[in-house]
Amino acid sequence: MLSVLIVTLFFVGGTALIVWYLKSFYAERANRAKKAEEHRSKHGGECILEWSGSFASGAPDAEFGKLVVEVPKKRGDGAARFYEKGLVLEKKRLPYSEIKDVLFVAAISDKKYTLKQAARDMGVLWIYPKKGVTIGLREMSYQFDTPVYNFLIFEK
Fold first, then answer.
1. Longest CA span, the chain
2. Where are the domains positioned within the chain?
3. Beta-bridge partners for 98
4. pLDDT tens-digit profile of 44-78?
5. How far is Cα 40 from Cα 54, in angstroms, rounded to an integer?
6. CA distance linking residue 8 with residue 108, whole number of Å
7. pTM of the full predicted structure?
8. DSSP-assigned letters across all residues of 120-145
């Protein structure tokens, strides 16, 4: 009898935890969608990049407009270029209207004793396109000068 009660409590607790997680997930998603709509309405229905830092100096792009920020590679030439209306990464050209979400995960500043710890704790800028594979700009290959990037690109 006691084992049945324990199993029932685990089942009810697990179900409650899953329901709570899903409710918070969908609430955050709805909040991002609301902010995205506010962002687009503020800019005439267009998905553009709002940037709180200083602007990069560089030539504008014919399709995407003014260069907003450039994240250079740590080794070699090349950079991820964020323009007013789109992203250019190597040979990929991605307008912001084709991106559903962007997330910057800051690096953890503790000492890293192994390569595995360093890889796990490095900063990554995740770009989630509507179609195709997720793009990750990692701290090992790109140089993040600013600890927090304020990208305001949201799902439609």
1. 75
2. 1-45
3. none
4. 667 777 777 777 788 888 888 888 888 888 777 78
5. 22
6. 40
7. 0.61
8. HTS-EEEEEESSS--EEEETTTB---
